[in-house]
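> example.struct
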């Protein structure tokens, strides 16, 4: 499904970017509240976002749009405020696990191939 950019595909990519921002902010809150369970829940939400973006746009660009929004939310919530504190707690291993797990999931979803991605040769039997 790669090819030209239509207004529909552009709108879908922008929607995935916005969904990535929302998922990243919600994931940050959940990981901050419940370390183990929240981390698993946040990573499952990211996997759904990235895989859904891959399926919706048919290319890795769908994953990139969602991952870009997620990373934007991660960075914005992680920078210190002028008062010297953070908007949300960014200490502990949970935030690093969330960052590393999200990156691994994005790469996995961007590089997977489905049955429709392979060419089928008529010269070779499919068995």
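> example.seq
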């Amino acid at each position: 499904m790669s090819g030209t950019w239509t207004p529909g595909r552009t709108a879908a990519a922008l929607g995935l970017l916005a969904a990535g921002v929302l998922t990243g902010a919600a994931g940050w809150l959940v990981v901050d509240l419940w370390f183990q369970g929240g981390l698993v829940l946040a990573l499952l939400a990211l996997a759904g976002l990235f895989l859904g973006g891959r399926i919706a746009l048919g290319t890795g660009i769908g994953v990139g749009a969602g991952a870009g929004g997620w990373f934007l939310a991660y960075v914005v919530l992680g920078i210190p405020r002028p008062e010297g504190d953070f908007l949300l707690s960014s200490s502990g291993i949970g935030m690093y696990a969330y960052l590393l797990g999200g990156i691994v999931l994005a790469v996995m979803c961007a590089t997977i191939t489905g049955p429709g991605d392979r060419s089928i040769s008529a010269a070779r039997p499919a068995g």
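> remarks
The mean pLDDT is 84.
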